[in-house]
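Run log, item B.
One chain of 447 residues. Sequence copied directly from the ordering sheet:
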Amino acid sequence: MRLASRGRPTASLFVQLLALAMLTLVAAEVISLVLIFNLPPPTPDFYRLSEIVQTFRGGKALFTERRPLELRTVSAPAGVPLDTRLAPTLRAEIARNLAVAPNRVVIAVDRNPFSDRRVLRTLRDKIVREGVNEEHFLVAPFEVAVKRPDGRYDEVRPQPAFGLNPWQQRIALWFVLSALAMAPVAYIFARRLSAPIRLFAGAAERLGRDPRAPALALRGSAEIGVAVRAFNDMQERLRRYVEDRTAMVGAIAHDLRTPLTRLRFRIESLPEDQRAKISADIDQMEAMISAALTFVRDAGQPGQRTPLELSSLLESLCDEMAETGARTEIETGEKVVLEGDPMALRRLFANLLDNAVKFGGRASARVTRQGATAVVEIDDDGPGIPPTDRERVFEPFYRREPSRNRQTGGAGLGLAIVRSIARGHGGDVALVNRAGGGLTARVQLPL
């Protein structure tokens, strides 16, 4: 089999995924470095000891850019005691301003191991070393607690922050902008990696409609190339299998004509009553063989598919049948155009209209469009079909009327041909009993 090709295969899927992962890591590192070297560090919240003491006394300091302080009663401070060299001085100053013993004052800091207390330590050490005469202050997060006579503590701390502070908002904005900048690259990679999967899905759907469809084009990664070659080999084997079986059925049907012809000559010497019965059986066998040969010929030689308007096709068929006295009509509806084999679809709808008239007395057709599917429904006024026979009637040579009388149903290939043509166009056909009586043949064909 000759394999279609569109350029050389690209790098393997493993290499492409590895490249995508490495690109993502590099982009993340670059974004982090840009943030580190360009964004200013966050400004800590400084609180003077006088502001903390004022909060203990019930006053409220007005802060414009800092979180307000809150006073509450707790059983014990939640943080760990401050362990800098200036801690005793801070506790003593707070105790003096509140007129309490220094051992009743606790200054605690956040237990979070990731909290940054370098600013606090640096400023305190600087003040101690240089002897700067400046009011002492604390840097959030912190807790200043004073033990009460009942064993509990009055505690002052900055109110917890809700939402993102300005520095966090800048970081989030940078990440959002970075994600938007990387989105086109990710989209291109994702589309490139998923394209072969879409190609396989389309090829599998096309194979179900037409085993003679062109071979799948070879493109994509090395793994995709191997899968494409295997898929094309499978399609070629299926095509040969179908053609061989079809040719075998046609050859058997053709070869059966010779013994039937000999039988016609040999029954001439039989009595008239026996000769008439045997001759009727031979005629029926010849009709079945002719139908089988026609079925094989149509299946083996699909016609060219062209744009086709279904309402016009059905209208012409109904007019032709009406000229012979059949009760046929088509309801006015929307114009639906699809790509199909005109001769095959004409035979499909002719068989359904003929069955509706033969078994239901009349045929009423309509064409509708449902999304990307054309739906043709043909109603009759017949007795319908039992649920157990709805699928069996599509089997070749199966007839619900057991007499095999040519006037009451033919050889039993009509509905088999209908389903074969419908599925050959990617659609299907079903028979549905109507609630008010009668049968509806529903054909669905993709546009």
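Observations after the first pass:
- Residues 25 and 109 are 36 Å apart (CA to CA).
- The first helix runs from residue 13 to 38.
Flagged for discussion on Thursday.
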